[in-house]
Amino acid sequence: MEPPFAERSFLPEAVFSEDVVMVTGGSSGMGRGMALAFAQGGAKLAIVGRDLEKAQAVVAEIEAMGETALAVSADVRDPVAVSAAFDTAEAALGPVSILANNAGGNFPALAEALSTNAWNAITRIAIDGTFLCSTEFARRRLALGARGAIVNNSAQYIWTGFPGDAHSAAAKTAVATMTRAFARDWKDSGIRVNCVAAGFFPHGASTNGDDPDVVENLGRMIPAGRTGRMQEFGWAAAFLCSPFASAITGQVMMIDGGESLRRALMSPDFVPPNQRSNVWGYTA
């Protein structure tokens, strides 16, 4: 089954009309999906990314929907830049009431071949970025005595690992753990923190995500018969930050089309990752 068209919101149109939402890594892929979902609910958006031109392209999409958005350039690994991004967003749009931590990256590499720089390139964006943005957000909401919501982007392989993904699996596991820790720290302050653990959501910035044949082949291996659609991820994130999820905090929602249930009694012969032509593939 396919989800409804991306242009169709599943929440009331004005559900986020009083909110300012900051989306990190919001200039492409899953961050863009989050941003558009919040915009459908009437939110004002701060699209944070290192590439200002790409962020401005998403802003243009949101403005075409009749909503307000602002592009902000920042490196989420830098606490000074994170604080400045909040200052910029709040000066233009008002206090940020919802934070969507999406900034991240990934590439296939066997663990023994990972350099320290390669490891840091992935883990620092996801771990440090999520920590720095979340704590900056919380400090500002606590100072105002105001409620708020955070949604983080994790991955379904945090429970299983994935060949050629030690760096991302570690980072995404940390994000899920921080989600629970933050929710406990801030539960009495009305700041809810949740996480979406995504399966395969191919997009132009992901490996072969813009190759229809690759996406179709991948979809056939998933019980749902297809990969995820960006609007599904965006809607899941928006729901967790909406009043309709006001009793949900500290949770990790998995959305993977049943891919984590794929193991069967009869499976193809196992091929060690270091013997595969594509580390993220299966056959030699």
UniProtKB/TrEMBL annotation:
- What organism is listed for this UniProt entry? Hyphomonas oceanitis SCH89
Lipid metabolism as UniProt keyword: yes
Its annotated pathway reads: Lipid metabolism
Q: What does this protein do?
A: Participates in chain elongation of fatty acids. Catalyzes the reduction of trans-2-enoyl-CoAs of varying chain lengths from 6:1 to 16:1, having maximum activity with 10:1 CoA. Has no 2,4-dienoyl-CoA reductase activity.
Assembly and partners are described as: Interacts with PEX5, probably required to target it into peroxisomes.
Q: What is this protein called?
A: Peroxisomal trans-2-enoyl-CoA reductase
Q: Which GO terms describe its molecular function?
A: trans-2-enoyl-CoA reductase (NADPH) activity
UniProt record, GO biological process: fatty acid biosynthetic process
Top EC category: oxidoreductase
